[in-house]
Design goal:
Length: 199
């Protein structure tokens, strides 16, 4: 929020949505007229028009945030949105939350997990642990994510080995150089190759 957006609109910090809209409408009319005047007055009017527009948007965002949070904490509100499946709204609220401490990263991990972005989720939990190494919730979650990753890795290995129903080819005697040729044919091919380079 720039400076104090409520103050720019001539309001108190606990202003209602209706008060913000009325103040913005009145100031907008005033500065729209002023911006068409010549010289410094017109320039000031244009600057103020831009400033009150930003202030209006900031105040609206703040009012929405206050409505979502209610009497609880910002993280309780985000958790509620995550549980309701409103991941975009939860992400937007989290993006506007400071400071980015362990709880912030842990909450980001939860959003990523719900989006099935498991690797990104694990990275965020690790960042949360770096900031708060003794937090048991973070440690338990990281342990679960690691086990899921190992399980996924094992499933991928099994799928690769089965190769859609075909077994992995077994090595033929004579080594992989011969590619299954008898030793006489392999020797002939090698001699031909050597003779070719000698010419």
């Amino acid at each position: 929020m720039q400076e104090n957006s409520y103050l720019i609109l001539g309001l108190k910090d606990n202003a209602t949505l209706q008060e913000v809209e009325n103040a913005y409408k009145n100031l907008k009319e005033k500065y729209q007229i002023q911006c068409f005047e010549e010289g410094e007055t017109g320039s000031l009017g244009a600057k103020m028009l831009s400033k009150i527009k930003i202030a209006y948007n900031d105040c609206i965002e703040d009012i929405k945030k206050r409505e979502i949070i209610g009497d609880g904490s910002i993280y309780q509100a985000i958790k509620k949105l995550i549980n309701e499946g409103k991941l975009n709204e939860a992400q937007q609220l989290l993006d506007n939350t400071e400071p980015r401490d362990g709880e912030w990263h842990y909450t980001q991990a939860n959003i990523f997990y719900r989006r099935n972005w498991f690797l990104e989720s694990k990275v965020q939990v690790e960042m949360a642990l770096a900031l708060d190494p003794n937090n048991s919730d973070y440690l338990n979650t990281l342990d679960i994510l690691k086990r899921q990753q190992f399980k996924a890795d094992d499933e991928l290995k099994a799928a690769r080995q089965s190769r859609a129903g075909y077994e992995q080819p077994k090595e033929v005697s004579g080594g992989s150089m011969t590619g299954g040729l008898c030793s006489y044919c392999a020797s002939c091919l090698l001699c031909n190759a050597i003779c070719y380079f000698c010419i």
